[in-house]
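Suppose you are handed only these lines of text.
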Amino acid sequence: MNLILLGPPGAGKGTQGERLTADGGLEYVVTGNILRAAVKAGTELGVQAKAFMDAGDLVPDELVIGLILERVRSEEAKDGFVLDGFPRNVAQGEALDAALSDLGRDLNGVLYFDVPDDEIVRRLSGRRVSEAGRVYHLESNPPKVDGVCDVDGTPLIQRDDDRPETIRKRLAVYHEQTEPLVEYYAARGLLHTFDGTAPAEEVEAHLRKTVSTLRLEDAV
Ligand code: AP5
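From them, the structure of the protein bound to BIS(adenosine)-5'-pentaphosphate can be written out as follows.
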């Protein structure tokens, strides 16, 4: 199973990606977490990426494409992967196609979360994350103990790019650069659209049903 999670910032890609890959069967590649770890570690990539991320812009393709394709080609991803946050523009989509074609593999599906902008602003303003990137929301998915991750007990923080002015910029970048991928994948019959405004459990149930069908199709 080679899957992509696609949708605007805050659509629920991380929330659902964690659930879909919790059993460890598929390699979960979260571009934003990889970049945030590089920023935290102060690597050259992190130093270069930070200004773009803080401004709500995409990190340049020359920094991101090689980094993610290396994960796609890795031993850990040989039984399949879930990409979250990649591709984010058509050039990245084309680079992924070329890499998969070299590997003799295909994409099975693109799981697209449809959520309107006003809901995105509400979600991202209330989002809190743990050090490992686990996702909570002050209202819809609060931790058991205020300010602390349920799983590893680390403090929950607000991401730097979840400030209102940066959220608006990220949404504008999404509509301009990432949304064309919806048509790119729909034209190839790969797109599966989900109502991302439904409760997370409902979205998960729909996703699992679709992934099961894709698995059956893949086995034929
Ligand atoms: P990244 O970390 O990928 O951010 P994003 O795509 O903007 O997505 P988010 O992580 O903000 O949201 P999500 O869809 O995962 O939603 P979540 O599950 O957390 O990227 C950050 C930056 O890195 C980019 O701006 C860019 O600079 C750079 N970057 C990343 N990839 C790149 C690339 N390929 N090329 C170049 N640059 C790149 O949910 C959001 C909130 O809603 C949570 O609080 C959650 O609890 C809540 N929630 C989730 N589902 C539901 C539901 N069904 N109902 C109610 N609440 C819900």
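What can we learn from it? The chain has one domain: 2-115+177-219. Residues 2-115+177-219 form a domain with the Rossmann fold fold (CATH 3.40.50.300).
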